[in-house]
Amino acid sequence: MAVNEAQIAFRTSKKLSDLKRHIEYRPDIDGLRAIAVLAVLIFHAFPTVLQGGFVGVDVFFVISGYLISKVIFSTLKKDSFSIADFYSRRIRRIFPALVTVLASCLIFGWNTMLADDLALLAKHVLGGAGFASNLVLWGEAGYFDKASELKPLLHLWSLGIEEQFYVVWPLLIWAAWRLRISLLLIVAGIGLASFAVNINWIHEYPTATFYSPLSRAWELIIGAGLACLTLNSRSSSISYNRYYTAVTEFFRAEKARSAISIIGLLFLVFAMLRIKDTLPFPGKWALLPTVGTFLLIAAGPVAWVNRVLLSSRPMIAIGLISFPLYLWHWPLLTFARSANPEGLPWTARVGILFASAVLATLTYLYIEKPFRSGSRTQLKVSVLCASMCAAVVVSVGILKSGGFASRYPEIIQRATEYDLDGYRAALRNRVCFMDIGQDASQYAPECIDKGDAPLWVLWGDSGAAAIYSGLRGLAERSGQFRLAQFTSSACPPMIGFEGGNPACRSNNQWTIEKISQQVPDTVILAGMWGEYQKDLLASTIKQIQSAGVRKIIILGPAPAWKDTPSRISFNLWSSDPLHRVPSERLDYAKYGMGHDFKVGQGLDSRTETAEKELRLVAKETGALYISVADKMCNDEGCLTRESASSGAAFYLDIVHFTPHGANFAMRAIASELGITTP
């Protein structure tokens, strides 16, 4: 259908001049848009095929900076620039497709999403409607943030950066023009300042650098700088065209321009093939796609790559629908992944991309184009603004209601509740559980109970921190021990371990030194063991034993799931024609992370494999091994809540216990711990 759209465009417009807006239409830039959006789509659907495809967003930034700035500069030159007209055109360009996608996501989410997921979607709709998605996602970033592939509007972060830029940029350029300040000087100064922020922040504040408009503005300004240089004007107050003329005279030949375009294309190809999402980005790596885009646009429409590849009809057709295609593809992928936590086959992903192209073409033809062209501009802007306001009102209502959990029965509500704040409080987040960026010096005094009862130390990662509330309940009910909690994000209790948290080594060393000082009666080593190699565990146990600790307990991992049990239960309930409440036990062979699942460098993360390895270490070192999975699972499946009539959810996500789950699990193993409770 994309190719048909190009044919429609060419039948209705034999001359390129018919496609002019404010500035001369360049079909090669639509082709460049096609490369950008195809790269993003391939990366999102098949990340291992094009690992750097996400740089397509950076290509869009440069294109947008060039085109919008050229419009501003051209209208300033003609003395026809109007702030109201500028934003009117932005509304008619952005709102039609955006409102359509936002409304569709809300409707689909209402019928398929859990309450907390729907509330989060509503929050992201508000971010998208206010062009602040990047700031919302920046604020959400953290260890317990929901997985990015489950956020249907995650991709709107880039639109937020663009529109935030265009709130300030036209006003700044207009003011510089009125004051007769060199626009090239303004462009260069702000661009260099933004790039400096990007370079200085990238290692210390990677999330902020990715989402902040301050560290991303330089990418749009690269395009703005090209627009400034290429503007035909005799007035040096608009641009210093004598510099550009000197350069273009040297490269005036078509062969030279073609060489520039080939170099630019090679920059893009290299970036898409070699850049990985594990590299610090944007940083210096973003120069590859942005400079490559700069060269391709600067080469002009007569250059070989631009004329033959980018200006081809299929590329133009995809470029014309690139904006709605970008908007549609990610929600379709996320909703499909939510419905199929075991993974989408490649055929399904291809089908989703095809469906995205169909929806994008329909959106472009019947929603976007009617609002962008024709008369009655003021009415169209009013309708679009009213539609966006309606989406905002609906989203506020959903957010305030917590996602309207009343849509389903009370027992399903309880089985699917998501209390992140309560969870964080229960594991004493940032107090006795050190989050990423915290070191052991920040453990609070209350992390060690006062009193005369034997001291038990809980040592491990977030999986260990999640069971703290269960151990606390045992301690209070039995009075047989007091408790110390030393837990750190992504840090298993193994001396010398180095992982994703740079503080692991020092935090674990601090803990073993504290154990040597306190000489506790018992040390409990706990964590999400399937995520780690365990070759350092035996030597750690020997160090604990040498400190004089009487008992060392290796606590087995909690059963882990391919998707959050609450979502699995909800999907089972909603897909059942009779809406019967699912069993408290889920089929672990089907839904559990116990079969055919590996992470990173061949590491076997299956629960059963982790248990075998841990039992062997316990036998070799004399530690006591206690299996949590044995108490949670039987031949019928593994528990996700206590009984058929009790809806209290045991899991916050795919592996972390809620306080309900922690209390149940610790009560179940109390006798093996040597604890008797009333």
UniProtKB/TrEMBL annotation:
The keyword ATP-binding does not apply. Residues 28-364 form the Acyltransferase domain. One of its GO terms (cellular component) is membrane. It comes from the Bacteria. Keywords: Acyltransferase, Membrane, Transferase, Transmembrane, Transmembrane helix. Coiled coil: none annotated. InterPro entries: Acyl_transf_3_dom (IPR002656), Acyltransferase_3 (IPR050879), SGNH (IPR043968). The chain crosses the membrane at residues 30-47, 53-73, 94-113, 154-176, 183-203, 215-235, 256-273, 285-304, 316-336, 348-367, 379-399. GO terms for biological process: lipopolysaccharide biosynthetic process. The keyword Metal-binding does not apply. Pfam families: Acyl_transf_3 (PF01757), SGNH (PF19040). This is Acyltransferase.
